[in-house]
Amino acid sequence: MTVSPFRSLMAVALVALSAGAAAAQDWPTGPVRVVVGFPAGSSPDTLARLITQPLTQRLGQPVIVDNKPGAGGAIGVQQMLVAGNDHTFGVTINGPLTTSQRMVDDLGYDTATDIAPVALIATSPLVLGVGAGMEVDDLAGFVELAKSRPGDLTYGSVGQGSGAHLTAELFSGATGIEMLHIPFTSYAEVTTSILGGEIDAGFMAHSAALPHVEAGTMKVLGITSAEPSALAPDLPVMAGQAGLPADFRAELWNAFIAPAGTDPAIIERLNTEINAILADPAVTAQLLAMGWQAQPGTPAELADRIAADTELWGAVIDRIEAQE
Question: Is 26 within the bounds of a domain?
Fold first, then answer.
C-alpha cells in the first residue's frame, strides 16, 4: 500500500508533538530560575513569589526568584535572555514589554522577536482620585470642569512615562481636556498632595485611595477597567462615560515570560500550571488583597495583550512627544 506524502508529513508531525510533550513532562531537570526586574518587596516580586511557591510543588523542582532591578524592569528581561536556557524565565510588569523600547536607550531586546509569552498573571486598573473638596462628584463633572479651565487642573503621577502618567494622557486625549502633569517619586507623595490641595487629581491604585475615601478626604470618580472590577465592584467604569470610548481601558499587569525559542511544550506546561495556581481561591483572595485580579489565559492571549498595549501606549507617547 502506498502512503501519501501528506499522511507521511502528518505522521512526522504527530511524532514530533508526542516527543515534545514527553520532554515537557520530564522537564524540569533542575532548579528553575525566575528573574524579576524589581527589588524584593516590590509588587512584581510579591506576585512572582505568590506564583513560584506553589509552582515549586507542581514542578517537583525548586523555583527560585532572582531579583535584578533596574531600568524600569528592563534589566530583568535582559538578564533572563542572557541566560539562554530552558530553566530561566521572567516575571515582569507591562512596561518592559510594551513601552520600554520607546523610553529606554539601548534596550538590548525586541519584545516581538526575543520574548515568548507564557501567561498573564494579574491585572490592576487605576482609579481617578480627587480631593474631597473638589466641586464635582462624577467623571462627567470632572471633564466639564477641566474643559472650562484648560491647562489649569493639575494631576500627579510617579514620574514621566509611568503607568499613571500615560493613563492620564490617554484620558486627556480621549476626552479632549488639558491638564498639567506634576511628577512625583511615589504614590504616597501624589496622595499627600491631593489631600493637601496642592494638586487636583491623580490616577492611582484603588488600594491606595480607599482609606482616604473611607475617611472622607478623597473622592474616586471611576475605574479604568473595561468592565466592573472585583477589586472595586461598586465603582463605575470610566469606559463609555464623559466622551470616553466604550472600549477605554488602562490596566497595569504582570506576566510570566520566556526567551523566544523555548520549547512550546514547556511553555504550554508552565501555562497550564500557572493557570491552575491562579484558579486556587486562596491565591485569588491573596491577589485581591494586594490590589490585583487573577487573569488566567493562554500564551496567545498574552501575546495579543502585549501587541494591543504596545500600540495603545505608543500612540500616547507619540502624542506627548508632539506636545513637547
Answer: no
pTM above 0.90, yes or no: no
Torsion on CA atoms 170, 175, 180, 181, rounded to nearest 10: -20
Kindly state whether residues 39 and 102 are assigned to the same domain.
yes
Alpha carbon dihedral 92, 97, 101, 103, in 10-degree steps, equals -50
Degrees, nearest 5: CA angle 298-290-192: 130
State the Cα–Cα distance between residues 269 and 274, nearest whole angstrom: 9
Whether the Cβ atoms of residue 120 and residue 305 lie closer than 8 Å to each other: yes
Provide the domain count of the chain: 2
At position 4, the amino acid (one-letter code) is S
| DSSP bridge partners of 180 | 154
pLDDT tens string 172-181: 999 999 999 9
Give the domain CATH number at 174: 3.40.190.10
Give one word for 222, left, alpha or beta, with left for phi > 0 and alpha for psi -120 to 50.
left
